[in-house]
Specification:
- Belongs to the peptidase M20 family.
- This is Zn-dependent hydrolase.
- With 428 residues, this protein is an alpha+beta fold.
- It folds into two domains: 6-214 and 336-417, Zn peptidases (Aminopeptidase, 3-Layer(aba) Sandwich); 216-334, Alpha-Beta Plaits (2-Layer Sandwich), CATH 3.30.70.
- The chain is 35% helix and 21% strand.
- The chain has helices spanning 6-20, 33-49, 93-108, 135-140, 160-166, 171-175, 199-203, 242-262, 301-322, 341-353, 369-373, 399-417; strands at 52-55, 61-65, 74-80, 117-122, 186-194, 207-213, 215-225, 229-230, 268-270, 274-276, 285-286, 289-298, 325-327, 331-334, 337-338, 359-363, 379-384.
- The strands form three sheets. Strands 1, 2, 3, 4, 5, 6, 15, 16 and 17 form a nine-stranded mixed β-sheet that branches.
- The longest helix has 22 residues, at 301-322.
């Protein structure tokens, strides 16, 4: 097989770290300076490799090695380049680095694919910044809701439209639903990504082949409202304690989660933020208000609906028993996605050919691959094990594991793209 350029990959990770380190972890803010620097680095690298460079209205980046038959549907790979605040260096970026390492190896050896191969640097995958899922990939297909452009970034308070326009994008075109990608013009999309949980590390597998991607149902701005009262002068029977009501909701939903799992459902439930109002709450007050968020995930839409109904039913019962009121605010979320079986098998075969026994597993986290799959495009994901999970500064992907993943990705891209070597050598 044609070896990917792993020296290039190592340099890119080092440069990304230098451009993104915030003193604690990695911050590549969505439609901000951090993400912009990462995109510039990948574009500069592509230019030196001689790849074609294109950007769309949402500033997604397309780095293309032309094929012999440019009218054929393109083979695509890639991932996102933004990060959560104080995250790790590999989440998302590993997929773009992997694609460039594969193409650099082909270029070095003078091999040309039968059809175009494109590495996509996707914008705005991390919804920590804007309360919208898959901004970059949905925009690429002209699917972003015009209302999403009015959503505000968590730290700046400025709109998505303002951030995109400031960087040279075209929010007006996005609002009109102008598409840069057409499903019928894409042969497949294969995304390499670090695993963001403990499964591969715990079981001793270097690589995982993803079977499906969970969808989500989220309440980002929920509140429970009771009544503030004196902590010493108010008996238990006269309290409308928002903290106690929320604690009861969380405890009961944990029990519902266990029961659903016992019944065969696959899901996760997270109350990721819980805050009293610092301006009103006090050690000598019964808390009258708590803000919180809820994140429900599953590969089954029916499971998400069931869990949501249990959440709302339980909250209604607690309103009656605790004298409080739950307010849920806007709902956001994403659709589950199923990975293509033929591509799953191709990734398994490629991993085995690289000397690695992969594990099949679902992805609890969301990925841009879901957008491609839900457009009817054959889609697959390859996970590389990563110690310490993700969305934290302690991501610890081993470069040998990554090299195995990149080789496996390269084999599948070569197979789908009909790669031809300079002396009729087998590319895989």
């Amino acid at each position: 097989m044609i070896e990917p350029d792993m020296a290039l990959a190592a340099r890119l990770f080092e440069q990304l770290h230098a451009l993104s380190f915030d003193g604690t972890g990695i911050t590549r803010d969505t439609y901000g300076a951090g993400e912009q620097r990462a995109h510039a680095l990948m574009a500069d690298t592509a230019q030196r490799l001689g790849l074609e460079i294109r950007r769309d209205a949402a500033l997604n980046l397309y780095l293309t090695l032309p094929g012999r038959h440019r009218d054929k549907p393109v083979v695509m790979t890639g991932s996102h380049l933004d990060s959560v605040p104080r995250g790790g260096n590999y989440d998302g970026a590993a997929g773009v680095v992997a694609g460039l390492a594969v193409l650099a190896g082909w270029i070095r050896d003078g091999a040309q694919p039968d059809r175009d191969v494109t590495v996509m640097g996707v914008r705005a995958e991390e919804s920590a910044w804007f309360p919208v899922s898959y901004i970059g990939s949905t925009s690429a297909f002209g699917l972003l809701s015009p209302q999403a452009l009015s959503s505000r970034r968590a730290d700046t308070g400025r709109t998505l439209s303002e951030h995109i326009g400031e960087l040279g994008g075209q929010p007006e075109a996005m609002a009109r639903g102008e598409a840069a990608l057409r499903p019928e013009a894409i042969d497949c999309f294969v995304e390499l990504h670090i695993e963001q949980g403990p499964v591969l590390e715990g079981e001793g597998h270097a690589l995982g082949v993803v079977t499906g991607i969970c969808g989500s149902h989220r309440y980002r701005q929920a509140q429970v409202k009771g009544r503030y009262a004196h902590s010493g002068a108010t008996p238990r029977t006269h309290r409308q304690d928002a903290v106690v009501a929320l604690a009861a909701l969380i405890e009961r939903l944990q029990r519902e989660w266990r029961d659903l799992e016992a019944a065969g459902h696959e899901l996760t439930l997270t109350f990721g933020q819980v805050n009293t109002d610092a301006r009103q709450a006090d050690f000598s007050k019964v808390p009258g208000q708590v803000s919180f968020c809820v994140d429900m995930r599953s590969r089954s839409v029916d499971t998400l609906r069931l869990l949501d109904s249990l959440l709302l039913k339980t909250a209604g019962e607690l309103e009656a028993s605790h004298g409080v009121r739950f307010e849920w605010g806007p709902v956001s979320g994403s659709q589950p996605a199923v990975m293509d079986e033929a591509l799953q098998q191709a990734l398994r075969d490629a991993a085995l050919a690289s000397g690695v026994q992969p594990r099949l597993l679902p992805s609890g986290a969301g990925h841009d691959a879901a957008t491609f799959s839900n457009r009817g495009i054959p889609t697959a994901m390859l996970f590389v094990r990563n110690a310490n999970g993700s969305h934290n500064p302690d991501e610890a992907m081993d470069m040998d594991d990554f090299a195995s993943g990149v080789r496996s990705l390269g084999r599948v891209l070569a197979l789908r793209a009909g790669l031809a070597g300079p002396h009729n050598r087998s590319p895989i």
